[in-house]
Amino acid sequence: MRLSFCTIAFRDEPIETVIPRLAEIGYPAVEVFYPQVENHSERQLIELRKLADDVGIDIAVLSPYFWLTQDETLRRRSLGIAERCVAAARLLGCPRIRTFTDTGPTGIGSGAAAPAHWDTAVAALQTITAMGRDLRFVVETHARTLADTPASTLRLLRRVDAPNLKVLFQPMFDRDYGADYEALAEHVEHIHLNNMATAEGPGWVESGPIDLVAFVVRVIGGGYRHGVSVEYCWRDVPWARAESAYALLTAGRGVCAER
Description:
The chain is an alpha/beta fold. Helix content is 40%, strand content 15%. The chain has helices at residues 15-25, 42-55, 72-92, 115-131, 150-160, 177-184, 212-221, 239-250; strands at residues 3-6, 29-33, 58-63, 96-99, 136-140, 165-169, 188-193, 227-230. The chain has an 8-stranded parallel β-barrel, surrounded by 5 helices. Helix 6 (177-184) links the parallel strand 6 (165-169) and strand 7 (188-193). Helix 3 runs parallel beside helix 4 and helix 5 (150-160) runs parallel beside helix 6 (177-184). The longest helix has 21 residues, at 72-92. The N and C termini lie close together (10 Å).
């Protein structure tokens, strides 16, 4: 199982310095936060791929944001982002693009979605997946989206009916995330590892109310062999947290193999 670190944690640093530092820690792969490369030229993307190759790290996932159920302006903007992401992923040698039906507090969850919301999102995802039939689009399970329960996620996959639309499983801690994962397991091609914040502060892979190592052991035991990313979405994440997450996930119980 390939271990990645999502660069959103270091979004204010140049991606050209983040990738070598993650490789130095030992990560065999990286999930690149798309805004860090959004304004890169083709030449810069090719150079970034060479940099990753030189330091021995794979670019496993490219992670943009989409808004597919709200207004037409956001939907068209999202289709434009998707088109640029497909081109960037190919130049970066990246096989997967993280996908949302919505992003942020204005997102529409499956329980609140009207038929028109579903129709709009499904049509948009059919367009997006057709842009890159050589790539995998991994829709993230997340609150305030149409993929906020296993049943709604499976409904979305069925309705889009695209062989290259898969699932990025992110545990939702107000649910039985182990059972949720198992309901979706055959479709999951990437997993996010993050933990719940508490009154004491942010949640980390190695410290928080959720035993994420036990979760990884569980999914490996079920036959999962794709990638996982440590993902911290807040700013000012200490680099020591990237190091400690790597140490936990590759040593001791050894749930993620070192390269």
